[in-house]
Task: structure prediction
Amino acid sequence: MGGVLIAVLGIGKGSWGHVGRLISEEEWDQILIVGNEWGKENFTPSKEVEWILVNNRAGFEVIKNAIIEKLPDAELSISLISGSGKEHMALLAALKDTGKDFKIVVLTGEGTKYY
Result:
């Protein structure tokens, strides 16, 4: 599809496979991963990614603002399959605060779906 993928990556490795497949099976102009330092050290994506490093113990506004600083002006697709509710809410609030339009992307048994 192209555009920018923004995926939240949590500390539970169970959802990492979904994020990894989404990265490898689609064509992206840029890939941003919202996660922590531990995830960056242990997740091995098949393509080059940029990290938005957050501390999930930080305040909500701190996490939201860290995401806002890295949001590109591009077509955005987001994946919330991994990560915590706090990180998800911070990403959604960042998108809303900046007025950015986005699609939700998910892998299904019928392939990649965009909503």
